[in-house]
Design brief:
The chain is about 0% helix and about 50% strand. With about 300 residues, the chain is mainly beta. The strands form seven sheets. Strands 3-4-5-6 form a four-stranded antiparallel beta sheet, with no helix packed on it.
Amino acid sequence: MADNGLLAFFWSATQRSFNLQALPGGNTTVAGGINAKGQISGQSTIGNSYTEHAALWIDGEVQDLGTLPGGYTSWASSINATGEIAGASDGSGSQPNAMIWSPAFGMQSLGTLPGGSYSVAFGINRRDQVVGYSDVANGVSYGFIWSKAAGMHELASLPGGGGSSGNAINDLGQVAGGSGCGGGCIHAVLWNRKPGSIQDLGLLSGSSFSSAYGINNKIQVVGSATFSSSDHAFVWSSAAGMQDLNTLIPPNSGWLLVYAFAINDRGQITGQGNLNGEIHAFLLTPTATASFVPGEKTN
């Protein structure tokens, strides 16, 4: 649920920044994703309550996407190039189900993995493949991939198990996320298109956990790794492995890059960090030397 009274924002180098207004009667918004057309998915409170509905912003105008039949609340995590949106909504039952919303058909439930009672979707690509997680009969939650043709299928887990989550998917059908790997072990992973495939992306040196949140069509993955004192954002590629983004920016910049949430095909990375002790969003742009230059901070 969103914090009361906070508004999400849109930023670009040409249009600068503006707030994303709430649905009628609401006062809080959260942005989940944006596509190349500038369409933004997320959620907004409605009325004088803490209830949230999935929302779509086009040219600054907000649209209520509603809920699944009988539902009370919904939220949207990502949007693809053609305006389809992935997220979750409760329905006639109390548990949320992963959903896909399209301009043509509205909101549809994706169901759950066999034996499950709830599911949540986090990523969608231009082929309308959706990823997220769902519980199963034993109560553990596992990552899934869903398509209109094949329905929902469980993603493989690392040896040792402990659950998993598919957090992002590129247009090639490759999925980034996290998987349990035994007691107290969680690693960032990459699922390729071959059924049953899973690749352990490992840890940053000295960290104890990692998880991936974004992937582009060049198979570059971003996420965060947990240290004893803080989290550090990372970027991973097959050539360089997992790299701490804080080692790829100019020293003494004042930044501690904590979370990396998304990466585009130009290698630009967005996330959240601390700038001189204050929390800010960041945009990193790669340079010719393979390092990054932090973009303008955003409040």
